[in-house]
Amino acid sequence: MKTTLSSQNLFTTTNTTNEYKEVTSTSRSNFKSCIHDKKCDTNNECIKGVCFEGKCRCRCSPFAHCIKNEDCLGRNLCSNKCISENGTSVNCHFKESCALGSQCLQGVCVGIGRYVRDAYEAISCNIENAEIDCQGYGSKSECTIELGVCIRHKNASEIGRNASNECQGGISATYGFPSCISYDDKPIKCGAKGNMQQCSRGSFCGLYKMAQTPSFKVLLLDIEGTTTSISFVKDVLFPYAYDNVEVFLDENFHRDDVKKVIHGLVILSQKEAANDTDIKTPAEDEISQKCREDLVHNVRVWIKKDKKLTALKELQGIMWKDAYESGKVKSHIYPDVLPVLEKVHSVNIPIYIYSSGSVQAQKLLYQYTSFGDVTRLLSGYFDTNIGPKVESSSYTKIASEIGKPAGEILFLTDVDKEAFAAKSAGLQSKILLRDGNAPISEEAKTTFETIDNFEKIL
């Protein structure tokens, strides 16, 4: 049975005997015995022959209070943790599992939260509405995005030498002045030689970095070639729709959502057949086998020709939904994407998606990624219903829908024509150069900043 701590005392340094009474009485026999982690269930950790829950599998993330795993950023897990004086953490179920001076706290999201260089350690303490005792490696203060770092020099002889932290709350940072952080939550200059008398007890004089938000106020993202490999869509999603469209329509034509899509495909086929001899005009009876056969033919032609047609995208979206939910397909996003989206989201910058794929398909792609559900970070979605991606009017409409000036929106894409269209509408644009993306024009190279990693936008 786990003890419950309030958010007010979550990171305090003192604990009464009563706070640990229930935890210390927990018998080790309640837990599975083990020799190493592989003997434990998934995500559990073997400590001193006992499997404890909540093995940490996360990137650099701050401490935060949590009740369930969904309260934690990224792949962090909500679990009891030993929070030690040097900023490290291990799993625990009772105080005795922790090193001397550490606490066993319930409901704590713990990431690595620690950046180590030759001369100093910098430990993230970016949490809201709670205090963390940074004595020994920083000062005691309420941590905010602006003051989300405790700095400790690894050697007292290095006091006064500039140190910086690259693992803190906020988006990016600019170098400040040698400082310590005071009890009143303000940085205090401590001089080039490190005036320790100006620092809180246990703190060393290091270089404080003020958090800095990016120039854009809204982030608008393309999918293929930007957040997701083109090969995933080309080699996984499109072939799935091509191979399974006949069986899918035969088995599901009676569904209301599929009937609606079939009607849209019939109208689209009649329109496209006038200009494309490869397209068949389907039978008028939309529930007939002949109509479905004609539509299967047309859908496969459009997929081969990589057509960006709304009715086609809606059909693919429904088919992919079934594939995602059944576990047949897991979507791909580049590993550099999620950490940046989490940082952008943490400073209340809304993130939108604009893709030729239907809104439904977009939601599914970000819900069923190999990194888990990413839709929690997204504020909205746009597809070709708002307009073609190569027309500036589409981006003007998006800015109007979002309610922000076009100049405050950053659009990321891998297609130069889309970047030019967004620029014409007044948006900021950058082009992603990733392996497998199509080459861009020389004009685009001189007009836009090109990046190969999402970190470059911060």
From TrEMBL:
One GO cellular component term: nucleus
Pathway entry: Amino-acid biosynthesis; L-methionine biosynthesis via salvage pathway; L-methionine from S-methyl-5-thio-alpha-D-ribose 1-phosphate: step 4/6; Amino-acid biosynthesis; L-methionine biosynthesis via salvage pathway; L-methionine from S-methyl-5-thio-alpha-D-ribose 1-phosphate: step 3/6
Localization per record: Cytoplasm; Nucleus
Catalytic reaction annotation: 5-methylsulfanyl-2,3-dioxopentyl phosphate + H2O = 1,2-dihydroxy-5-(methylsulfanyl)pent-1-en-3-one + phosphate
InterPro entries documented for this protein: Enolase-ppase_E1, ENOPH1_eukaryotes, HAD-like_sf, HAD_sf
Biological process terms in GO annotation: L-methionine salvage from methylthioadenosine
Cofactor field: Mg(2+)
Keywords: Amino-acid biosynthesis, Cytoplasm, Hydrolase, Magnesium, Metal-binding, Methionine biosynthesis, Nucleus
Hydrolase as UniProt keyword: yes
Annotated residues for binding of Mg(2+): 222, 224, 414
GO MF entries: acireductone synthase activity; magnesium ion binding
Top-rank taxon: Eukaryota
Enzyme Commission numbers on file: 3.1.3.77
UniProt-listed Gene3D superfamilies: 1.10.720.60, HAD superfamily/HAD-like
Residues engaged in binding substrate: 355-356, 389
Cofactor binding remark: Binds 1 Mg(2+) ion per subunit.
Family listed: Belongs to the HAD-like hydrolase superfamily. MasA/MtnC family.
Oligomeric form and interacting partners: Monomer.
Protein name per UniProt: Enolase-phosphatase E1
